[in-house]
């Protein structure tokens, strides 16, 4: 076994080596921490005034388009009403033409037209 003085000497060296290691680790941690802080970038600052001005500009554009959209909507409504009216007129005109054609065929079949007129009607392709 070792005597007490050797034990104290070994314990003193171990204590000194431990302190050296602890100081080295503390310095290493401090250096790494400082390096991390120095390389860390600050978060980008948001320029709210620029965003607000962009929003204001967009709002003005939207407000400028509103009358045009309203006018276009009114135009489409008028166009749809006119289209419905024209379809109704077309349907009525087709009914009238069908009635006239039927009446013309009845007159043709009844012998109302003379033979010369009948030939001309056939040549024209009216019947």
Topology at a glance:
Blueprint: H1 4-39, H2 48-110, H3 115-124
Taken as a percent bin, the fraction of beta residues is under 5%
**Helix amount:** over 70%
Number of domains: 2
Give the uncertain stretches in residue-range form.
none
Number of strands: 0
Quick one: overall form?
rod-shaped
Provide the gyration radius in Å: 52 Å
Give the helices and strands as they follow along the chain.
HHH
Please characterize this protein's 3D structure.
This protein is mainly alpha-helical. It has two domains: 1-41; 73-127. The protein has three helices and no strands. It has helices at residues 4-39, 48-110, 115-124. The longest helix is centred in the middle third of the chain and has 63 residues, at 48-110.
Considering the chains and any ligands shown, give keywords for the structure.
single chain; about 130 residues; about 85% helix
